[in-house]
Amino acid sequence: MEFTELINEYDWDDIKSRIYTRTAKDVEIALNKSRLNTDDFMALISPAAQPYLEQMAVLSRKYTQQRFGKTIQFYVPLYLTNSCVNHCVYCGFNRNNDIKRIILNDEQIMREVEAIKKIGDFQHILLVTGENPRDAGVDYMENAIRLVKPYFSSISIEVQPLKETEYKTLTDAGLNAVYCYQETYYKARYKVYHPKGMKSKFDWRLDGFDRMGKAGVHKIGLGVLIGLEDWRTDATMMALHLRYLQKTYWQTKYSISFPRMRPHEGEEFQPNVVMSDKELAQIIFAYRIFDHDIEIALSTREDKLFRDNMTTLGITSLSTGSKTDPGGYAVYKDELEQFAVNDDRCPDLVLSAVKNQGYDVVWKDWDLSLQ
What we know:
By secondary structure, the chain is α/β, with parallel strands linked by helices. Helices cover 40% and strands 11% of the residues. It contains 14 helices and nine strands. The chain has helices spanning 3-6, 12-20, 24-31, 38-45, 53-68, 106-119, 138-148, 164-173, 187-193, 202-215, 231-248, 277-290, 304-310, 347-356; strands spanning 71-79, 124-128, 154-158, 177-179, 219-223, 253-257, 295-298, 317-319, 360-362. The protein has an eight-stranded parallel barrel with strand order 1-2-3-4-5-6-7-8, surrounded by four helices. Helix 8 (164-173) links the parallel strand 3 and strand 4 (177-179). Helix 4 runs antiparallel to helix 12 (277-290) and helix 7 runs parallel beside helix 8. The two termini are 28 Å apart. The model is unreliable at 366-371 (pLDDT under 50).
């Protein structure tokens, strides 16, 4: 049974109610366990856990250092295209936005790689596209992977969900990880935010994670977009999804992130939910205590103060020097961003901030040597 079937066993409103009725005693029980179940996780992300944030931070730091040491991995996104057939109401790449659409060619991709290498010794690159399978589909992605492979030790993608055979094709070409955000697990309201395009198909997107696992993708990244629905309920649904994937595809590594909505091009979508910095810290701590091995990423959507504060408290990777528009490093410096970057420091400044806290920066994904 795949998760698209299992998710129907979980009632959104019931889970939400269970989270918001958790008590201080439930939180204390969870904090004194070495292995947590999803009921314990619900306690740690509930409002009842807010007075325990300091204790959670201590545990989160302890478990992160035990598993990952005092290290932070740097990665850099490379946006290949802003061409997209979807109508996501919260995204600058929305098909309805009257913007210039760009698909980088081979020469332009290599100019971007050259520019990236000049700003930092990045070995982990994330290739990002809008969803345009006709003009920037699997063949285009495979070609891009082969182009950049000689320059990076780890290649990840954040693209539209693919078929199992297509993930296998890209893995054979040198792909190491796939990041795909469900955005929200609330199926009843999913189409409100994704009214048209392939992304409007909830089950196809959710089933993509099983297809990744079957294709043998080395690392799978999950995430929810904070601002759409109740973040505590979405976080719990993602925890249920994570546990299912870990049990089913146990040889795969997993990563999670919690991007908060940022300003974007086009009609301004007002978030239904606003998450505070303390609440974002709470979800990071809760996930680290729930799963000591999970990788937790924090992008340049967050400001420098928050990112610096989280460096020692649970995260394992940071994007830095990011440009969120295709060709933003060298080719098209003034084109559309998918979202506005919040931490615009150059990699050297982020590197110094990490080192000032007694941590080392890992430019290379050393875990790949164990494959």
